[in-house]
Structure formats: C-alpha cells, structure tokens
Design brief:
six-stranded antiparallel β-sheet, five-stranded mixed β-sheet, alpha+beta, 385 residues, disordered C terminus
C-alpha cells in the first residue's frame, strides 16, 4: 500500500472518529477505519478491563462470524487465555519502551516469529475461517487501554511487518479519538449532573420528562414524578454554616439515590437549592408511592434537617389527561406544596385526596392561576416546561 493511500486512510479514520456523537459511534468508526486502512475483512475494538482481568469487545465490523455482534454485550476474554495481552499491553513499555503491533496466523508459530504467538488467537482464527490477524495495542494516558484487531480470510495475503507497523500508527490515531470522545462524554455528563450531589440536574430532568411523557402518550407507559423539598436547610445553613448545609444536601441526595434504585430505571435529581425529584417510567403508581413513603421515613432519620415534604403525581392515578411534562410537574409541585404546608410526614399524592368523592385539592391547586398565599404561579413557571 502506497504512502499516499495510507495517509488518506489515517485521515479518514481520524475524521470518522471526530464525526462520532456517541461512544458506540466512535468505536465503530475506529474499527471500520482500521478495517479499510489495512485491507481486512473483519475488525474489532476491545477494551482491557484490568479490574476484571479481561479483554471486552466493544465493536465488531466487517464480515462477522456466527455469534459475533456489532456491539456485543457479553463478548469478553479472560487475560489468562491471552497471556500476550499482559506482555504486549503492559510490560513491553513499562520501562519506557513503545507498544507495537504483531501478527498472528492460522498456521501458528511456524509461519512467523514465536514471540507474539498465542494459541487461543490461532484457534479463534481457524474457528472463524480467518487466515491471519494484526493486533495493535491502544495506549491512552500512558496506559494500555485495549487493542485494535484486524483480520483477513484464509487465502488472502498474510499481514507483514509493515502492516503491523502501520497498525501501530492507526492505534495511536484511535487512542486520540477515544480521548476526545471521553472528553466530550465528560462534558455532557457535567452538563446534566449536579456538582454537589452527583445526581442528575434540572436540565436532565427536563429532557427525560419530555421523553417520558411522549412515551406515555404513544404507548400508555406509566410516568410518575416525586417532587421533594428538604425541610430545615435554611436553619442548618444559618446556625451551622453552609458547609454543614451542603453535607445535608449530599446525604439526602444519597438517600434519594438509594430509594430511586428501588424503581428500575428511575432518575434521581436535584432541581436546585433544597428541591429534589424522582422520575419513574414503567412502575405502577402504587410502587412509586411506596418508595416515596420510604424516602420520607429515611429523610426523617437524617441527623440534620427536619425531614422532607414530598408530593407525587402519576399518570397511573386519576389526575386527568397528561399531555405535557409541564402538566405532570405542576401536579407534583402542588402535591409537594400541600405536604409542606401541612407538615405532612408522608407524601401527598395527586388524584387521591378526593378518592372518597370529594374534590381533589391538589388538582385544584395545580389548575388554579394563583393559589391563595402560595406564590405557586411563580414556582410553576420555574418548574416544568
């Protein structure tokens, strides 16, 4: 392969990874770019999970063998099956050396230098009808991150030393692309994360609630929102200092996260100040109310603060049609206000106060233009879109 062709292949790989919007797109672009650059029939990108002692496959592209998925959930290989992983992906440059790629063939060590020979890889090549492969370590932040693997079928020209050297260059480009993807992912994470508690923030709730209500309208999925107001935070701040107040927020955030884990897929979030919420999609209204009950009990047991005022609104209760995220948020907010005003030790649930035939005070409050003395019109403009 000429130098110009290889240079264009490197540029194409870098551009493909730069255009990726998600980690999966980045992994696919890395494998696909290496596949084309090396003239292979199959390529894979894998990550080395040290804590589990295994190499986990992230993406498979090209001519996949039976059982090979593009983005496999459970394709992983223990390090003890591939002893050269430790040698080539760690020890070779621990003393300042540089990682380099190597070639394996289905014929085994008789076809090449024995230094990189791995019986498991040879067996895998034969089992999947491939004649040879080139394996290039991917190094990120000075440590082995994983490997880039490109194979050719039986009968095709076997990879040579020059191909292995070029694969090392491609692996370096892939490492740079992965680093950029990780930076973008971290920026996205921070954009949707509350810095103090580590919970989701208001922006994340807005997006997820909009999506949840769309699912409710399209599929009838039960969507529930628990809105919480942490009692006593101002008193803690005024008497013990803001550092202690922050500790209270962090501890309640942990309690909220713990309770949220009782609802599969629930989103635990801090809306700002002393206001928190849980967003649940799927579980029944009764399940959500039970979790909200548990949340109130655990919050009351915190050594700081005065418990929590909790309001619940769920499409699984008789609250009328919910066609927008704003509607559900207003109902949960009104329920929380009722709990706060009454000093309730348990959650107030929209649609259940009038279960005996009377008018539901929460729904009336949510629908009123300006509930008397509540200042809630301004609160509802802050909450929900």
């Amino acid at each position: 392969m000429g130098e110009d062709i290889r240079l264009r292949a490197v540029v194409a790989l870098a551009q493909g990874m730069a255009a990726a919007h998600t980690p999966r797109e980045s992994w696919r672009a890395a494998a696909q770019g290496a596949l084309l650059a090396l003239g292979g029939s199959f390529a894979a990108l894998s990550v080395w999970e040290r804590e589990r002692g295994r190499l986990r496959v992230l993406a498979n592209v090209g001519e996949r063998a039976p059982g090979e998925e593009e983005f496999p959930d459970g394709e992983a290989y223990p390090v003890h099956q591939f002893p050269e992983i430790t040698e080539f992906l760690h020890e070779r440059w621990a003393g300042g050396g540089e990682p380099h790629a190597w070639v394996e063939t289905a014929g085994g060590p008789g076809d090449r230098e024995r230094a990189g020979y791995c019986h498991q890889r040879v067996a895998a090549l034969r089992r999947r009808g491939r004649g040879c492969c080139v394996v290039a370590p991917v190094v990120l932040h000075g440590r082995a991150w994983g490997e880039l693997y490109v194979a050719r079928p039986v009968g095709e020209h076997v990879f040579e030393r020059g191909d292995a050297d070029f694969a090392s260059v491609l692996a370096a480009v892939v490492a740079a692309g992965i680093a950029q993807t990780e930076r973008l992912e971290e920026a996205r994470r921070l954009a949707f994360t509350d810095s103090l508690t580590g919970l989701a923030n208001r922006r994340a709730v807005d997006l997820r609630l909009d999506e949840a209500v769309e699912r409710h309208r399209a599929e009838g999925a039960v969507v529930s929102l628990v809105v919480c107001d942490l009692n006593g935070l101002k008193r803690v701040n005024d008497t013990l200092g803001h550092a202690v107040g922050d500790r209270l927020l962090e501890r309640f955030g942990s309690v909220l996260s713990l309770c949220g884990a009782m609802l599969p897929g629930a989103l635990a979030a801090r809306l700002g100040g002393d206001e928190f919420c849980l967003l649940s999609v799927g579980p029944s209204a009764d399940e959500v109310v039970r979790v909200a009950d548990e949340l109130c009990v655990r919050a009351d047991e915190l050594e700081l603060g005065d418990g929590v005022a909790c309001g619940v609104a769920s499409t699984g209760d008789p609250i009328g049609a919910v066609r927008s995220a704003r509607r559900l948020f207003r109902l949960a907010d009104a329920a929380q206000y009722r709990a706060k005003a009454a000093g309730a030790a348990k959650p107030v649930v929209a649609g259940r106060e009038g279960a005996a035939g009377g008018e539901d005070a929460v729904i009336t409050l949510a629908d009123s233009a300006r509930p008397a003395g509540a200042g809630a019109a301004e609160r509802r403009r802050f909450r929900g879109r």
